[in-house]
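Reproducibility note. Readers wishing to regenerate the assembly model reported in the main text can use the exact inputs given here. Chain order matters: entities are listed in the order in which they were concatenated for prediction.
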Amino acid sequence: MPLKLVPDNTNIGFVKLRFIAFALTLLLTIGAGALLAVRGLNLGVDFVGGLTMQVEFAQAPAIDELRERVDRVGVGDSALQEFGNARTILIRLPLPEGDQTAVQRVVAKVRGALEADYKGVKFARVESVSGKVSDELIKDGLWAVGLSMLFVALFTWFRFEWYFGVSTVVALVHDVVVTLGFFSLTQLEFDLNIVAAVLTIIGYSLNDKVVIDDRVRENLRKYRQMDIKQIIDLSVNETLPRTVMTSVTLLAALVALLVLGPEVIFGFTAAMVLGIVVGTYSSIFVSSSLLISLGVKPRAAAPEDKRAAGAERIG
Amino acid sequence: MLDFPKWKIWSIWAVIGLCALLALPNALPPSVLNSLPDGLPKSQLPLGLDLRGGSHLMLEALPTDVEKAKLESLEDTVRGELRAATGGPIGFTDLSLAGNRLRFTLTDPARTDQAVQLLLKVTSPLGLSTAREVDVARGSLPGEIILTPTQAGIDAAVDSAMAQAVEVIRKRIDELGTREPTIVRQGATRIVVQVPGLQDPEALKALLGKTAKLEFKLADITADPVEVAEGRAPPGSQILPVQQGGQMVVKRRAIITGDQLVDAQVSTDQNGAPAVSFRFDSTGGRRFAQATTENVGRPFAIVLDGVVISAPNINEPILGGSGIIMGNYTVQTANELAILLRSGKLPVELKVVEERTVGPDLGADSIRAGAIASVVAVLAVAVLMVITYGRFGVYAVVALFFNVVMILGIMSAAGFTLTLPGIAGMVLTIGAAVDANVLINERIREEQRKGRGVVTSIETGFKEATRTIWDANSLNIIVAIIMFAFGSGPIKGFAVVLSIGIATSVFTAVTLVRLMVSRWVAGARPQALSI
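Running the prediction on these inputs yields the following C-alpha cells for the assembly.
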C-alpha cells in the first residue's frame, strides 16, 4: 500500500480558524516589517558597493586578532564574518577611492599582511562593486520583484476573478515580507542570489495558491447552492494531499542542498526553505479564506454561465 | 486522453532522443569527444566563472569623455574647412570648447553666411539617417558661430566608441595569451569582460585601465618660464606632467599620433636597458621625417595618456619611419607598453565598476558540493515519489531523469552557461516537475476514492490536473521572463534554467508520463490501481 502523507477525505475546518490565521499573518507581517525598518538587512556588496574577500586559512584564526591585523593595514573599516566554517572568513572593506588599480592595491596590501602572519592563507574569491552599479542592482531587484507581483495579480485576475488576484497578492506580500524579516533577524548576507530566491518563492507560493484557486473555482461551478465557507473548506481539504506532498518533497531536496551544498548557496537555500514553509501556510490558511472576506460568490467564478444564472434568478 | 497515435509516440521519443544527443558531449571525456566524426554535436555546457574560477570585470565609459573627444575632432574639422574655404581662408578667433559647445568668432563677420553654409554641409548627416549630429547656429555677437552636438550625435559617437573599445580590448587580451575571453557590450556605456581561469586579474586590469593615447609633440622652447611656473601656457601650447617628475611645455597640436603606428616591440636601448621600438605607417613616417627635419636640435615629447614619458632631442632628421622609446622600463612594463601601442588606443577611458574573481579551488569545491547535494536531493525526491505513488512514482522519476537530460541538452546546444544559481534553478525545476506529477497522481487517487474505474480515473486525473499545471506554469514563466529582463548576473543565469526547465518539465511530467501510463494500461489492462 503506497504511503499517504495526508489521510483520505480529511475535513479540517480551515475556514473556522481564519480570524486566528488573519491575526497571526498580520502580526508576522508587521513584526517582520518592523524588524526590517529597525534592524535593516545585511546588504552584500552587490547592493551597497564595496570590496569582499573570501579568505581561507589553514587553521581557524582568532577573529578579533585578525580584525586588528586587517585594520592595521589602513585600508578602511573592515567587517569580518565566518563563512560556512571557522577557517573561512569573509572580509568586507569599503571600496577604495581612485583609479582601477586601487582595488588591486588594497587586495595586495591585505594579502601581503595576512600572508606574513598566517601560514597557508588563500584568497578564494574577491568581489568589488562600485556604488553606482550597486544602486542599479537595487533598482533592478526591486523592479523585478514588484513587476512579478503586478503580473501575477493581473494574470490571476484575468484567468480567474479579481477576488483571487487580491487574495493571492496579499498572501504573497506576506510571504515576501516574512522572508525579508528572516534575513533581517539572522543578518545573513542579502545579495543578488537572495533576490533570485525571493522571486522563486513568489513563483512557488503562487503555484500553491493557483492550485487551490483552481479547485475553488471548479467547486464553485459544481456546487452552486453550497455555502461559500463549505466550498473553501472542501477545496483546501481536497488539495491538501498535493499541497503537503509537494512541499515535503521540495523541502527534502532543499534541505539536502542546505546541508551538503556549497557555502555560496546557503543563503539562497535557507531563503527557499523558509519561503516554502511560509508559502504553504499562507496558501492553506490565508489566501483561500480571504476570498470569503472579499465576498466571492458562486456566480462570480462562473461568468460563462451567465444565462443559466439569470434563469435561476427568474425561477 | 490515453490514446496516442503512432506519430505522436515517435515525435515524443524523437524530441527526447535529440536532446539526449545534444547533452551527450557533457558525459564524454575530451579524447573521445575529439575523435567523434563531424556532424555530431560536440559542444559542452560551459561552466560559469563561479564554478570554474576566473575573473569578471565590468568596465564603464563616461559619455562626457566621448563628448569631449567628439568636440575635439569637430575642432579639427572646423579648422580644416575654414582654412580651405573658397575665396581664401576664413579667419577666426576666441575658439572655445566650454559647455559642450564649440564656439568661435570670425574676424570678418561679412563671411558668416559662407562659413555657416560650409559647416552645415560638412556636418550634414551621412547615410540614411536624417537626424543631424551637430547643430550649427549663429551666436549673438556679429560673426560668432556655435556648434552643438545633438543627442543623436552624442549617442552615435558613444556607440561607435564602445564598439571600437570592444575591439581594442579583445586585441589586448589576446596579446596576454588568455584562453576564451568573453567580451560583450552591456547597455550603452558598459563592457563586460570575463576571463576564465585567471586567478590574478592585475595584469588584465593594468592593460584595460589605460587609454594608451600616444602622441608626439614638439616642445615649446619659447615659453616664458615665469608664466609656466604659474601654470599658464602660451596660446597653442600646454603644460604636461613628466613621468620622471616635473613638467614640460609642449605644442598643443601633435605632429603625429599612435594611430599611425604599425608595430611596437620590446627591444633594448644602447645601454642594454629594456625599451620599446616602434614603426610608423608610410604617411606617419613621412610626417615624422618632415617634422624632425624642420626641428633638428630641439627636443620633442613622447606623450602617453597626457603624461610625457620621454623627451629626447632631435639630433638629426629621423627618416626611416621608426624610433625607440626609452624611459626606465623593466621587461614587463616595456612589454605592457608594447602591447598597448600595438592594440591601439581606447577611444574612451574605461573604469572598472564591478569585479568578481573566483579562485579555481573554490570553484572546484563548489562543483563537488553542488554535485553531491544535487544527487542527494534527487535521490530524496525519487524515494519519496516511489514509496508514495508506487508505479506512478517510478514513471515520475523516469520523467525527471529525462527532464534533466533535456535541460542539459538544450543549454549545451544554445550555448548558455551553467552557473551556481543555474544549478539551484535546475533543482527547483525538478520541484516543479515533481509537483506536476503529484497533482496528477493525487487527482487520480481522488477519482479512485469516488469509485471511478481505472481508465476513467486516470483520464480524469490527467485532464483536470493538466489545466492546473498549465495555470501554475504560465505564471512561473511570467516570473522567469521578468527575472531575465530585469535581473542581472546570477539572476539571469537562474532565470534561463528556470524558463527552459519549466518547458521541459511540463513536457516530461505531463506528456511523457501520460505516454508511459497509456502503454502500461493498454498492455497490462489493470483491474485496480495501487496508487
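We highlight two features of this model. Chain B has three domains: 6-51+360-524, 54-195, 209-354. The mean pLDDT of chain B is 84.
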